[in-house]
Design goal:
The complex is a heterodimer. Chain A is an alpha+beta fold. Chain A has eight helices and 20 strands. The longest helix of chain A is centred in the middle third of the chain and has 18 residues. The chains are: A alpha+beta, B mainly alpha.
């Protein structure tokens, strides 16, 4: 079932002192979706979040919320709430009062506030912390208070600006699961900003990959990973080997000195393209059977698999992930299936 | 080693703080008799005579008024300076600080020439055929002098606290539905209290004890508690009574600081600037 569109950006641009932060962006977010804005720092993802939150105004374009233009509505009149990157808790208030802040602004009855806050504390696993000073909490606990403080207002959209960036790896993984669970449980639309591609892939329904203020690709995590639209997305989402190639004809590409069958078509004859191959799609095989041959230059054990750099006979370096290992100096062959060769149009640099 | 390096400061403090304090206490609690001194509370009893109490209350009144005006003028100024939209904050900061490079007495003398009968203000008023103002040697002149001299001590601590408030906290309050006025009342003002408290302390204490401003701008007839102490030591020669008033003042100031630090709460790490 496809649900209604709740937030929509049309032709939105934003400049900071002449420098474009977002250029002509179109995006819509459906109800109950978990959407992630993913990109390197400076790509405009936080700017987009701040525009939706109402902390900035777009220089052009419109932002609509349930069909209503909210481009110039100040943040305190929007029905979205934000979890800030550095939490931004009120240090003069205790945990209870931090969470109750939004409810007190709405002048709710004390008994209702008590009930709602205690339900939130339960949700974020902080029962018994009501009276605690927020400055005495750990990073993870402060994060939970920040999430509870936003969620208690029952927003229709929750904006999260790199909320897990300051946590250590283990805690981050835990919070990822918890956030995902909360989102399912409460049925609230989440718009999540991160530069961590793994986080984006594991949590989202939809991933929006951004670069230099422009959207590169929008799709499910599987789509983004398996069918990146360009070399940037391929490189940013997971690790990739990106080499120059020439499309000889449909379903036939030449790179690394050989012709390969592939699954892509629709290019001009002899068009220069980027060939993207995931390191886990390269398999080690005896050199005489392979089209790509090379010498193992380095070996790195990463737990589940080995990471090897193989220098091909034509000088190309190949990143290989494999559960098998060949020692440094060995000449090996690299095999790959037509489905694993991703052909992309060259991005005009 | 650490203790050794502290020695000069310890000697300094003993010589110029502890010993004088002990002397003041000694003079306050003794009265000279024939052939010696006796312990007595007589000096303190004198302080509670109506004539001196009135001086004390007047000092308190003027200090409170001056502190209040400094707060009303200083807080908005500090807010404007701390505001992000304000580009020339360093210029304004300089304007507040530059007068402090000048000698305190000179600055106050300058007001004398501005306020006097044929001074700058009255010349200006006369030029427009307006009635003259006789501000000099009134409460107004003394309060004006205090506000002028002590305003930077109010602005700077408040500015320093305000400029350290995380912008994210202000945004978070707006995000949670607070309009700009509510953001100020519920977030900015409470978070800036340490600055307000230290500003009040830094203005109230000198305003309460000043004798230069009241002497110059209040004229001879105008006595504040600071003038009273000065008189007892330099004119009357009653060191016992002068010391007793000083002790009362120390107690008053310590009490007001205790009250202040109670309001300041747990924010102990707030520096003045």
């Amino acid at each position: 079932m496809v649900s209604e569109i709740i937030v929509e950006l049309k032709g939105v641009s934003k400049y900071y002192d002449e420098t474009p932060a977002l250029t002509d962006v179109d995006l819509y977010i459906r109800r109950n979706e978990f959407v992630t804005l993913l990109g390197p720092s400076g790509c405009g993802k936080t700017t987009m979040l701040r525009l939706i939150g109402g902390f900035e105004k777009p220089d052009s374009g419109t932002i609509t919320f349930k069909g209503e233009d909210i481009s110039n509505v100040p943040s305190h009149k929007r029905r979205v709430n934000t979890v800030f990157q550095r939490y931004a808790l009120f240090s003069h208030l205790n945990v209870f009062e931090n969470i109750a802040f939004g409810l007190r602004i709405k002048k709710m009855k004390e008994s209702v506030i008590r009930e709602k806050v205690s339900r939130m504390l339960q949700l974020v696993n902080l029962e018994g912390y009501e009276k605690r000073d927020v400055n005495s909490l750990s990073g993870g606990q402060q994060q939970r208070v920040a999430i509870a403080r936003a969620l208690v207002n029952e927003p229709e959209v929750l904006l999260l600006d790199e909320p897990l960036a300051a946590l250590d790896l283990k805690l981050r993984k835990e919070m990822q699961h918890e956030l995902k669970n909360m989102q399912r449980q409460l049925g609230i639309t989440f718009l999540f900003v991160t530069h961590d591609q793994e986080e984006a892939l594991s949590m989202s329904d939809t991933v929006v990959v951004m670069k230099d203020g422009e959207i590169q690709q929008i799709g499910t995590p599987e789509m983004i990973y398996n069918e990146p639209v360009n070399a940037f997305v391929a490189d940013f989402i997971g690790e990739s080997n990106i080499v120059d190639g020439i499309m000889r004809e449909d379903y036939l590409v030449e790179f690394a000195g050989s012709l390969f069958e592939c699954a892509d078509a629709g290019f001009l004859p002899n068009e220069l393209v980027d060939v993207v191959i995931r390191p886990e799609d390269l398999t080690l095989m005896p050199p005489e059977k392979a089209k790509i041959r090379g010498e193992v230059r380095s070996v790195n054990f990463l737990g589940v698999h080995w990471e090897m750099i193989v220098e091909g006979t034509d000088g190309t370096s190949w990143l290989v992930h494999s559960t098998l290992m060949e020692p440094v100096g060995t000449v090996v062959g690299l095999g790959l299936e037509p489905m694993d060769i991703h052909i992309m149009k060259k991005v005009r640099a | 080693m650490k203790r050794l390096s502290l020695t000069p400061y310890l000697i300094w403090m003993v010589l110029f703080t502890v010993v004088p304090m002990l002397l003041v206490l000694y003079y306050a609690f003794t009265v000279p008799t024939e052939g010696g001194v006796t312990w007595s509370l007589q000096n303190f009893a004198r302080f509670f005579e109506p004539i001196y109490l009135r001086v004390f209350l007047r000092s308190l009144y003027l200090a409170v008024i001056s502190t209040g005006i400094c707060l009303l003028l200083g807080y908005p100024a500090a807010m404007v300076m701390a505001g992000n939209a304000f580009k020339r904050k360093h210029v304004v900061m300089l304007l507040f600080v530059v007068p402090m490079w000048m000698n305190f007495l000179l600055r106050t003398y300058a007001w004398l020439t501005i306020l006097e009968r044929n001074g700058f203000i009255n010349a200006l008023l006369g030029f427009f055929n307006l009635p003259r103002l006789n501000i000099l040697y009134t409460n107004t002149a003394v309060v004006l002098g205090m506000v002028y001299n002590f305003l930077p001590f109010m602005v700077l601590p408040i500015y320093s606290v305000l400029s350290k408030i995380d912008k994210g906290v202000v945004e978070a309050a707006g995000d949670l539905g607070a309009n700009p006025f509510q953001v100020f009342m519920k977030v900015i003002l409470p978070l800036s209290m340490p600055g307000v408290v230290s500003g009040i302390t830094m203005v109230f204490m000198p305003a309460m004890t000043t004798f230069v401003i009241s002497r110059l701008l209040g004229g001879g007839q105008f006595t504040l508690i600071g003038n009273l102490i000065e008189q007892q030591f330099l004119v009357v020669g009653d060191w016992g009574f002068g010391s007793a008033i000083s002790v009362v003042m120390i107690v008053v100031i310590l009490l007001s600081m205790a009250v202040m630090s109670f309001f300041e709460g747990e924010e102990k790490d707030v520096a003045l600037w």
